[in-house]
Amino acid sequence: MATNKKAMEKLDREYENAKKAEQAIIEFLRVWVAEDETAAEKVLTSKKTVRGAYAAMESYARKNSRQGLNGKEAWVQVMKYFGEDETAADQKLEHGLMYACMKAEIEKWRPYGKDVPEITTVPATEVAPSESKAAPAGGFVLSLEDLGL
């Protein structure tokens, strides 16, 4: 069985009895494991649990006299708990892991009662000048030219 799959199974087992804050940590860890080859081994480290990661975050916040941590600080502490170097954790978050987490969270949400339309973009070079002045439904377009600027 692949290490990645074992790590995901461990996270699934912990999710069953996790509190809401711990579930958020599990969601983060799932993305980390999916994005980073070494993360699965760190998550599988014996005696390392999501509850322990939450306690480490909480302890860090208390030591630093804070009410809470911002997202990046929290995830750095989680990664540190699982054995990632703090500087490396910070860099991984800055270089795509945080984006992957946000993207995974956004993909869970859909407009209520509506199908999600596929969004397509048209390069500006393909828009005819007459089309660029067209008013959107229920609104108007005001350009700098209209203002005499």
Describe this entry's structure for a reader.
The chain starts with a helix and ends in a 17-residue tail after the last helix. The protein has seven helices and no strands. With 149 residues, the chain is mainly alpha-helical.
Low-pLDDT runs of 5+ residues are: none
Give the mean pLDDT: 81
Query: Helical content, roughly?
Result: 55-70%
Please summarize the sheet with the most strands: none
In total, the number of strands is: 0
Secondary-structure element string: HHHHHHH
User: Over the alpha carbons, how many angstroms does the gyration radius reach?
Assistant: 22 Å
Helix-and-strand structural type: mainly alpha
Strand content: under 5%
Distance between the termini: 66 Å
Count of discrete alpha- or pi-helical segments spanning 4 or more residues = 7
Basic shape: globular
Features:
149 residues, mainly alpha, globular
Itemize the secondary structure elements and their pairings.
Elements: H1 3-16, H2 20-35, H3 39-43, H4 50-63, H5 71-81, H6 86-106, H7 129-132
Helix pairs in contact: 1-2, 2-4, 2-6, 4-5, 5-6
Overview in brief:
This protein has 149 residues and is an all-alpha fold. The protein has helices at 3-16, 20-35, 39-43, 50-63, 71-81, 86-106, 129-132.
